[in-house]
Design goal:
Elements: H1 11-20, E1 27-32, H2 36-46, E2 54-59, E3 62-63, E4 66-67, H3 71-76, E5 87-91, H4 104-111, E6 115-117, H5 123-127, H6 133-141, H7 150-172, H8 182-189, H9 199-220, H10 225-237, H11 251-281, H12 285-298, H13 302-307, H14 316-330, H15 339-348, H16 351-366, H17 375-380
Parallel strand pairs: 1-2, 1-5, 5-6
Antiparallel strand pairs: 3-4
Helix pairs in contact: 6-11, 7-9, 7-10, 11-12
Length: 381
C-alpha cells in the first residue's frame, strides 16, 4: 500500500472531508475524466445538477508526479473500495456500451453506478452532433448563409455505413474481432477529400465501398445471417439508428476525417463570401481594409469551436447521460436533498421513505438499476 496520501484518496475520504465542513457548505463530488478535452464536456453535463447541497469538481486522475490518461486509469482509480457517493468516473463509451458486457471493461462500465459513459463512442461524436453544425459554422464565420445541408449529409452518411457498422459490432461481440477491427472499418468508410459540389458523388462512392466490404464479409461468414440480424435489432434497441450511426463510430475518425474537412470547406466559402460582401459595400480602400481587418480578427478556429460545441445537449445520448446522473443522485441517502425538503416529502407521503432509500439501495446492491445502459434500457422496458 502506498504511503502517499494522494494515492489513497477514496470516496470515503472525500465524504469525511465533506463532513468537516460547515453544515451550510456544499458537498463536493469529484468526477475523474480521461483527458483535458473531457473536462469542459463533463462540466456541461454535471453543472445542471449542482445546487445548494452539492457541487462537482471535474479533474484528471493523477498518480505521483505523472498523469494517467485513458479509460482504464479513470476506472482503476475508482473500483473496489474507492467508489462511492463522493467520487465518480466519466469516460468515453467506445464500443463498450454496444458490445453489452462481452469484456470485463464493458461489464464494469455498464454495471458500476459510479462510472458514467457517453453512450456515443466519444465526446468527439457528440461535438459533431449534426443538427448543431450549422450553428457552429455561424459561430466560426459570423455568416448565417445556409449553403449546404450538413445535417442531411450526415444522415445519408450514417445510412450508408450502418450495415457495415452492424458487422463491426458483430465481430467485436465475438473473440474474432481482430479479423475486422475498428481500424479496418474506418479505412472503408473514409470519404477522402470533401467538396460541396461533389458531395453526392462522395456518398455514392462510400456506398460502393461499403457494399463491396459487406459482400466480402458475407462470403467469409455464410452462416452469420441470423446472428447479424440479432445484432442489428439489438443495436436499434440500444438507440442506434441508421440515421445516427455517426454518433457511434470512432470519434477521432469522425472528427478529423469527416466533419472537420467538411466544416473547413463550408466555412472557407462563407468567409470568402463575407469578405466579398465587405469589399463591395466599402466606399473606399481605407474602410475596406479596416472592415476586413476587424472581420478577420472575429473569425474563430473551427476545431476549437467544435470542441466547445454545446449543441449536443439536445441529442439523445446526452439526455441518457443526464438520466444516469439523476438516477445516481436520487439513489443516494434521503439527505442528499436538504433535511427540510426530505421532511416535507415524508409529511406529504410517508410511503416515500420506504420507496426512496431502501428500494433504491437494494437495486444498487445487485446492479439491476444500472445494467446494460441504466436509464436507456429502463425507459424502453
Amino acid at each position: 500500500m502506498s504511503r502517499r496520501l494522494t494515492e489513497n484518496i477514496s470516496s470515503k475520504y472525500l465524504e469525511a472531508a465533506n463532513r468537516l465542513n460547515s453544515k451550510k457548505s456544499r458537498r463536493r463530488i469529484v468526477a475523474y475524466v480521461e483527458s483535458y478535452d473531457d473536462i469542459f464536456f463533463w462540466r456541461t453535463v454535471l453543472s445542471r445538477f449542482e445546487n445548494s447541497q452539492r457541487c462537482f469538481e471535474v479533474m484528471l486522475p493523477a498518480r505521483v508526479n505523472k498523469l494517467e490518461r485513458g479509460k482504464k486509469a479513470a476506472m482503476m482509480r475508482l473500483i473496489t473500495e474507492n467508489v462511492g457517493q463522493s467520487m465518480i468516473a466519466c469516460v468515453d463509451a467506445d464500443y463498450d456500451y454496444l458490445i453489452q458486457g462481452r469484456t470485463s471493461v464493458s461489464r464494469q462500465i455498464l454495471e458500476n453506478p459510479c462510472i458514467f459513459h457517453t453512450y456515443a463512442y466519444a465526446i468527439e461524436n457528440l461535438q459533431c452532433y449534426a443538427p448543431s453544425l450549422h450553428d457552429v459554422s455561424v459561430a466560426v464565420t459570423l455568416n448565417d448563409h445556409f449553403i449546404f445541408d450538413m445535417e442531411e449529409y450526415m444522415r445519408q452518411y450514417s445510412q450508408a455505413i450502418f450495415p457495415l457498422f452492424v458487422w463491426s459490432i458483430w465481430y467485436y461481440r465475438t473473440p474474432n474481432y481482430t479479423r475486422f477491427t475498428i481500424t479496418d472499418f474506418c479505412r472503408v468508410i473514409e470519404t477522402g477529400n470533401f467538396s460541396i459540389a461533389n458531395a453526392p458523388a462522395i456518398l455514392q462512392n462510400l456506398r460502393r465501398k461499403v457494399g463491396a466490404k459487406i459482400a466480402q464479409l458475407q462470403r467469409e461468414n455464410p452462416d452469420a445471417k441470423e446472428s447479424y440480424l440479432q445484432v442489428k435489432d439489438d443495436l436499434k434497441r440500444l438507440g442506434v439508428t441508421p440515421d445516427t450511426t455517426y454518433l457511434y463510430i470512432q470519434g477521432h475518425h469522425l472528427f478529423n476525417k469527416t466533419v472537420l474537412p467538411m466544416m473547413k470547406k463550408i466555412c472557407d466559402h462563407l468567409v470568402r463570401e463575407r469578405e466579398m460582401e465587405i469589399s463591395h459595400q466599402s466606399k473606399h480602400n481605407t474602410q475596406r481594409r479596416n472592415e476586413l481587418s476587424c472581420y478577420t480578427r472575429s473569425v474563430e478556429d473551427i476545431s476549437a469551436m467544435l470542441r466547445k460545441n454545446v449543441g449536443c445537449m439536445f441529442s439523445e445520448p446526452f439526455q441518457w447521460i443526464c438520466q444516469d446522473v439523476e438516477q445516481f443522485l436520487n439513489a443516494q441517502s434521503p439527505y442528499s436533498v436538504s433535511p427540510a425538503e426530505h421532511a416535507s416529502v415524508v409529511a406529504e407521503d410517508p410511503s416515500a421513505v420506504a420507496e426512496h432509500p431502501s428500494a433504491v439501495a437494494e437495486e444498487m446492491a445487485d446492479g439491476r438499476a444500472y445494467v446494460n445502459g441504466r436509464a436507456r434500457v429502463a425507459n424502453q422496458t
